[in-house]
Amino acid sequence: MRVLAAMSGGVDSAVAAARAVAAGHDVVGVHLALSAKPGTLRTGARGCCTIEDSRDARRAADLLGIPFYVWDFAERFREDVIDDFVAEYEAGRTPNPCMRCNERIKFEALLEKALALGFDAVCTGHYARIAPTADGAGVELRRAVDPDKDQSYVLASLRPDQLRHALFPVGDTRKPDIRAEAERQDLAVARKPDSHDICFIPDGDTRAFLDARVGNRSGDLVDDETGEVLGQHGGVHGFTVGQRKGLGLDRPSADGRPRYVLSLEPVSGTVRVGASERLAVTEIVADDAVWPTGRPLDGLVECVVQIRAHGGVAPAVAERDGDRVRIRLRDSVRGVAPGQVAVLYRPDADAGDLVLGAGRISATS
């Protein structure tokens, strides 16, 4: 196969490219330039998006003896990831920019370009597995062997036609073994730190980043139980459901317990706060459902649901309702925010490792 290896400059994508070469594929490496000003992105050898990362990717490609290119996706990244991130927070929702990047950049824009140029697949360093369906007619997305590095959650919005042209060569290996393999191949990125946080917010201060783009949109901080106005804030974009710190309140609750953000009302600018038990959710509605297997849910289906990239799972029953999915949790879960993605996994002998579907949370109760 002709394979386009997306090389971020980190160890995982370098080893993924090396494995594609070792498998006998005709491999070309590409690094995605995601900023018109790369120096404004995170620096310090963190493995994502910077000038130094592109140099690390080029060195790895040279060592592997494969052609290497840098493709400018900065404008598309700004529109589909950064602008979307700001708009979602402005609307009182909590987005996942890594999931959006995979969906819109790596497996839409990049894959489309790769196929147009005659490539058969895009190869990345994501920790996930693709397996054929039982009938052999399609593919399934499964969790990685390494549970600590599993990235199936942030890939769960991919369609079957995209997964058929995806390769995840490192998904069957644990991270320490990937680093050891890189060492054996003399890849300079073998000990490079993993990337964390959000690449386009270099200092990690999400609120300051949003303030600079949204501005001050003051509103009330309201006690959800009593209706009392407790204070003012600079905009709902500075908060997310479940947040405890940074509320700017000058006095504790009557019973001395901490307050949490319970809901956001972007039209009125109201941020409702209250006790942690008021965060408990037993039902979730998720829109724009995607079924990576190509098989939508049929009737009530027992599953487990994950609502954060690095969160745990909760047993549930889910049912498709048009392009929505309705999820009834067996036990209540706290801190579920609109805008997050609910990913459904099959709870079976494979420890719930098969991705059934995903949808963006629009409502909870």
TrEMBL record:
Catalysed reaction, written as an equation: S-sulfanyl-L-cysteinyl-[protein] + uridine(34) in tRNA + AH2 + ATP = 2-thiouridine(34) in tRNA + L-cysteinyl-[protein] + A + AMP + diphosphate + H(+)
Location relative to the cell: Cytoplasm
Site (Interaction with tRNA): 126, 340
Top-level class of the enzyme under EC nomenclature: transferase
Keywords: ATP-binding, Cytoplasm, Disulfide bond, Nucleotide-binding, RNA-binding, Transferase, tRNA processing, tRNA-binding
Main location: cytoplasm
Keyword set includes Signal: no
Pfam families: tRNA_Me_trans, tRNA_Me_trans_C, tRNA_Me_trans_M
EC number, as in UniProt: 2.8.1.13
Chain positions recorded as ATP binding sites: 6-13, 32, 125
Active site per the UniProt annotation: 101 (nucleophile), 199 (cysteine persulfide intermediate)
Domain of life, per lineage: Bacteria
Interaction with tRNA as annotated region, ranges: 149-151
Kinase listed as a keyword: no
Domain tRNA-specific 2-thiouridylase MnmA-like central: 208-274
All copies of domain tRNA-specific 2-thiouridylase MnmA-like C-terminal, residue ranges: 282-361
Function: Catalyzes the 2-thiolation of uridine at the wobble position (U34) of tRNA, leading to the formation of s(2)U34.
HAMAP family: tRNA_thiouridyl_MnmA (MF_00144)
Family designation: Belongs to the MnmA/TRMU family.
Protein name listed in UniProt: tRNA-specific 2-thiouridylase MnmA
Lineage summary: Bacteria, Bacillati, Actinomycetota, Actinomycetes, Pseudonocardiales
